[in-house]
User: Fold these one by one.
Assistant:
Number 1:
Amino acid sequence: MSGNAGAPLRVAWLGHTSAALGGGMATYSREVVSRLRQRGHRVTFFQHELRESEDGGPEAEAGTEADEAVYLESLPVAGRLVLSSGRARRRLHERLERRDFDVVHASFWFSTLDFDLPRACRRAGVPLVATFHIAFDQRLSVWGGITSATYRLYAPTLAACDRVIVFGASQRDVLVHLGVPADGLRILPNGVDVDTYRPGPSDWKARLEASLLLVYMGRIDSEKNVDVLLRAFLDCEPPADVKLVVMGGGGERRRLQRQYRDPRVVFTGHVADASTRIDVLRAADAFLLPSSVEGLSLSMLEAMACGTATVATDVGVDGDALRGAGIVLDPRGLEEQLRLAIRELMEMPWLAGRLGEMARRRVEERYSLERNVDALIAIYRELLP
């Protein structure tokens, strides 16, 4: 697929750019919007951000027509819920009603604008595509119950969209069960720029004086089970030159950093610079993601693309992406399985290299950003008159 057949598209994109608000969804928005623009499509990026101009009002639209940003006045609440002002809602609706977009694409993640958007797009006569990022797990658990309630909340809104992008068959089946029409659902996994995220040299192991380097990268919140990972790692009694890097910020970081004061555990906080994150992943022998719920983790795909052996729980679509190319853990009995995986990596250092090669090959075959954007443009063109 060329991805560029036909006239350039005019896309209104709604999403996050702040890692604090959006996490992996912010990366998804930035990278896909950038790639669409590189292919000659005009994208107006409506961003959930608190930004003010010098006079104290919302920041004005910036950039050229083909590289336009519109900042929607928003307030983050309770971590990742986004409350948008009435002024932001009016501004969005006014732009849609100018009818200068071929398609609207929204990344749905706990914004109050999400639920009114299908009605606004119908009124403006513009088709709506939604990517549904909300993490899930179908097992009976506290986090599974919380995410199940969120899926029920969103189902009527998703049913009113023209197309809904999900990351795998299990997520699609959950939404169909909740009444979202199957013919409007499209399976399109996240994609990674495999030219940027690739194996390469790194001095991080030398800087940390590590013979074996394990890495967690992502939000440090309770559903990510970083505390379980830390306990399992230290229970294995690793020698002084086996290190675990915990990279990311979140509600649990300060508590865990105070609790686990051990020279074998290195907390970096949030690392905004992508080249630094890539250097750490290239140096790592293994990447570990012990979450209770996920959608399809971009951090995991980035680690796999860097040729890092990957260990992750079988939640969301992560298990489907990793199975046969890494170590997949059942979230039940998680701590014991983490200890076993860490001991295997310590006792069989050759295993990491072999798993890393398999992980890289899996991403190249199924999860490249180019493949993702090709399929996305095809979905847009389905909806054109």
Number 2:
Amino acid sequence: MTEKYTKGMFIVFPAISMLLGWGLRGYIGGGPFGAMIPGAMVAMSISLLLELPVAIASAFVVFGVVGIGLGGEMTYGQTLGLLKSSDTMWWGTLGTTVKGAVWGLLGGTILAMGLTFKRLSQRTIVVSFILLLTGMLIGFKLINQPMLIYFSDPAKPRAESWGALLLGAIAVLVFLKYKAEANAFKIISRFAIWGLIGGGLGFGLGGFWLVLGFHLPKEVIFQSWWKAMEFSFGLLLGGALGYAAWLSRKEFSLEKISHPSELVVPKNSVLKEFLFAGIIGFLIFWLIAFFLDPVVDSGSSANGFTMIGLTDLAKIFSNYAFFGLIMIVAFMRFPSMAWQIAISLTFCHTVIDLVEDFSPEVSESLLTAIRLLIVVISTGLVAALTARVQRSKNVVRNMFLILIWSTIVVAFLRLTLKPETLNVSGLSLCKFVCGKFFVHIVFTLSALFCSWISIRTFNQSSKLS
């Protein structure tokens, strides 16, 4: 029987989706919250290819923003800085490969838990995240804090967490090996392995763009070496996760999913959706950080192994893994909130990151009010659109389009923060395309490609909704 979607489609579509998401992550939102963008995009592209029912797709996307976001806890700026010198280039390359592999391993594991969440009990999911946090604490104390293996600059030490995430991922996989059904664990381990391969290759090989940039004259037109690295990372990790989905396609054919009642029928009013999303956003974007960040910042910076104390616990509970647990528990308690968590909260942080750089010459109190108003209004518009689409046809496809173009708008709005960047007088076509606006051209072409594929290929509301 002819395959509906080719292996190439399973690889290329998630690869370009994650290339776009990863590039946007580094441009309109950093850290783990910024990494929610590629997490959501790759999950939605795979959901479309597997033709998942909306309930499963919505869970998959929530686990995607959590799983891929986790790797954003790792610091890697100084690791990439090691690529400048021939004396440290290969150590830096090893560091980027290890960190990329850990990012993909843990991201693939949590992502696949969303694919199989109907086969996992809620208790198993919660315990998995508790073990993740425990493993992270142990890994931090045993590997990262004593700098047992260190991939940053010893002269200006920064706290690393790749060992913490690695032990956390291992703890989750070992637990699921014994608690999950055999078929479910097969899928989870498959995504974990291919995530590890794609992440390691993506970050490790992507770093060579920076090596090239460091050794070329500063006068060359192309200067976006960091973005080229991010695009490569997203491309290879997304392609690897897409390949894992292709290997799992028969297990997720609609004929084999015997859950006819799993269409998402909203049980909450739009007002309740807004209220719950607002509470979750307030909790993870501000309240927890407000109380715990001062404890973390005032803690000891000792490099050796020390006993677990208040600072360590504060680090765990102000970590994105704990925020991820909050989002997962909220989804399990209120399944109809899935899209607000995955789309609206992901978009919200991009606006928060944008307005932090928005500084008109006004009083501090007025500036705070303006920033808050921009965040509330823009996020409210996206949340309203998300609520509307959730109650219509072609839910997954249209949610994907909402996230793509809302984040693209934020990316282009960021250009206006520095009006001088819009000055194109005297620019040759090569300098325009390969120099000044290369990143935005890639954003636009990738967004158009993903939108075109989504609209042309995935217009089967009877199956997807």
Number 3:
Amino acid sequence: MPLHEALRLALQAIGSAKLRSFFTLLGIIVSVGFLVVVVAIIQGMNAYVKENVTGALIGTNAFQVRRTPIAPGLLDDDQIRAINRRPRVTRADAEAVRRALPDAEAVALQSGWPTPLSDVVARGRGRSVGDIPVFGVTPPYQIVQDYAFAAGEPLAEPDVTARHRVVVLGHEVAEKLFGGAAPAVGREVRVAGEAFRVKGVVAPKGRVLGQSFDGFVLVPLTVFEGLYGRRLTTTVSVKMRDADAVEGAMARAEEAMRVAHRLRPDQPDDFTVDKADGLVAFWKNLTRVLFTVVPAVVCIGIVVGGIVIMNIMLMTVNERTREIGIRKALGARRRDILRQFLIEAMTLSVLGGALGVLGGWALAGVVSAASPLPARVTPWSVAVALALGAGTGVVFGVYPASRAARLDPIDALRAE
């Protein structure tokens, strides 16, 4: 029997029992659709973290010298205790890094993690914004973060040395308190109960995964330490002029920190030199766990769907026993009958895979449009889904097809 003839008969048999065929494929449709949408969300999140989150947190062409890793990962108790015993990063460390990197565009010191949350009040307007992160920074921090200013001026070195009571507001804070960036400049706000003058407002950076990067307050580092103390974790942030220079600069910064902390060659670092790639790697480690769980769930659905296909095909063989007998009496060979029923099972499963891909693609689009979760359907996930569908038809269609091929034509013709 030619392949096209077997395919025509398979489609004819499926079309003659549409509802039964649909419910036969339901398990495969759901499993394949689940695979496509989960992979789309994971791939979208990977790309989104790499393109948006890392730049928003650290800045471009930048890295940080920290007491703790930016992405701690799955640390055990001993590792956590060792990190907690590390010394605090200090201004002397920032100076050591600055001397080691004369070619850096900016070297900044910041404090505020764990971040002190504060109520910011617009004096005289009766407006307040609660739970706003407050960071103490040196002026180069604004360069590291690639901040553009919608109104006013950035913090300057005299603000730190002279302990000026000035602040820079994130755009969202200025909008809520004063209705815009320009009206906020020169006005007075209260942070942690203390009065400050608004010196500038940062241009909006937008939202990432529903989290705003415009809701913050920057104060001079010296003023911050006067309000919250010097025991909070501090971080040295470095911005290089060229992305190609980051790796070499990180090595020089590590060497400078080891010398500053007087570490022997056999002693491990008591600090972390980290960049945005560390956060990307951390996120990928998390998604790798999902990639180990998702195939198991999908395989269970595929096996259930395959068993349903096998049972339906066995029932079909019983229903079409007389038809098989007639075909054999007219000259059909055993391999023709085997091919006919095997192609019918494969056609069913491929249709289920295709419907699952379309459903998963549509659901991924809905998730991306209705939530902050990004979703990107990748060609390899579509190919894997379709291969799973075809493979299910082959594996679970062999037994019913071989049973049909082994029927004795005389006994088959006697069947009612």
Number 4:
Amino acid sequence: MATTKPRTRWIEETFHSDWRVRLKAHRVLHEVKSKHQHLVVFENEEWGTVLLLDGVFQLTTSDEFHYHEMMAHVPLMALERPRDILIIGGGDGGILREVLKHAGVKSATLVDIDREVIDLSLKYFPGVSDGAFDDPRTTVEIADGVAFVADARKKYDAIIVDSSEPIGPSAVLHSEPFFADCQRALKDHGILVAQNGLPFSSPDHLARTTSYFAGLFKSVTPYLVCQPCYFGGSLAINCGTNGVAPGAIDPTTIARRANRRKIVTQLWTPAVHHAAFALPAYVEKTVSAATGQHKRTR
């Protein structure tokens, strides 16, 4: 009797309306519809272990350091003495891992609405958090990030919004009222950074958040990172502060801080830090139009 060859499963990203990307699932490790979202964890021979949330690729173990290092070290290296850090989302623990590389950080609070994301991450890709959840400086809150920030009494040096795309439970993490509450929860010269999508395929996402930030901060300076598994071009990360913009700090100052803190990275360097703020013309046009629109409507 002939044996039936197992059918190859391809996992498809469904976020974009006019195009699709698929990765081969050599082995599905876990799939569940949780209370908050649809999660799939699978193995791919080239990308490693992959996490998909609500049809959007969130993480692969082969390239996760691109995103996590740039989300963490750009704001923290821009601060002379970062002490108290708040992470909204980020249940995989990658940003937490990078934040805790800064020895001067005294507290890192991670707020995620879905405990299952944290548990799955610890089970299937523990190297991403690399022990960060066990660090005594870490506090984990299983809570709605919007409500947590709205009720916050503590002030933070940096707030890092590690959200997925503006769909499902993450949609409110891209809203103006949420960002306004984040701004109120920052120390005087604190920095807010937020994942802002792909400006090539979703310029409206970047424009909308830039306009919100322009109403809240003296300085709004989006920057870019190439994240290979986020198909469709470079990823934008928006950055707002009432202090000195991270891209405007003298390169020698960033290099001095990096040398003093002795942080080991795979992507971030002082040179990459500054280069990330050099925006392509079409992205600069989107940012300029958004800040100009905000000024005209004030």
